[in-house]
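Handout, section B. The chain below has 308 residues.
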Amino acid sequence: SWKGQWVGEEWRGHWTDSLRPGNYRVPVTLTPVLNTRPTKGSKTASRWATSEGTLLLQTREDSLWATISTPTGDYRYLAGKRTHNTLIFNTFDGAHLFRFSATLKGDSLVHGSFLSGTHYETSFDGVLAPDEGEGWKSGQQAFNGAEMALTGVNALGDTVTWNRSSLDAAGKSGLVVDVMGTWCPNCMDEARLLAELAPRHPDVQFVSLAFERNTDANILPRLAQFQEALQLSWDVLLGGKASKRIAAECLGVVDTVHSFPTTVFWAPGSDPVIHTGFNGPATGEGYVVERVFFESQLRRLSGRSKNH
């Protein structure tokens, strides 16, 4: 939430992150940007191997656009400015406040820093990578052989179980389980893709299983708000606290959860396919690869394809 007031030409206040304990606040000052003009020409793209992952950078004049890809997801849309040899790019999505800075020295990024809100700071550096493409692929992990069954609590406080018998009773040919958290930006990107694809597969049951930082009395209304905001046509169930161990125990079919989100595609009579992480729209080519994978899995669950 935001709270503040105008003082002359400035807005001064603070942003409160309700998902963090201890009344976590970040001071905010907003000032008008004067004498702006659009940049001209084409963007120049480059890739950098950095301490936080692969930096996908585009520049035009003094403006820059970026994301950072990691094995489990990406930092979504980043934007900023180059002043002489200093790069600064950042993002704020309502839940995460990230700021990157570095000095460009030849083919290296040096003396940099990465800040997350006011609670975390670390060094940031990198080197220019060969332009050989990212080699995008959808991350997957092994099935442990356990029976497919999960339980969560819906917005009404009722316990809901999905397994083979409940899937058969619902007349569904397959199940998609989205293991996520409302605090996770990559989870939002994945949920939006599922919401887009779900109407094409009415014979497939979708369910989101949330693992949250806070599980007090406010969490079920929050999950209902999340469901409404992302226009999800299925339940968002509370699975437990935001812990990879707890998520793995709740899901059952993996020994550990490597990342949020993790997505399970399962048709009774076959082993579940377990997808880990998510490359969102900011990655461009990476998102295309994810989309193709998700579409192929949904066709398989609908009986339209035999390919896994």
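Note. The chain has a mean pLDDT of 92. Compare this with the example in section A.
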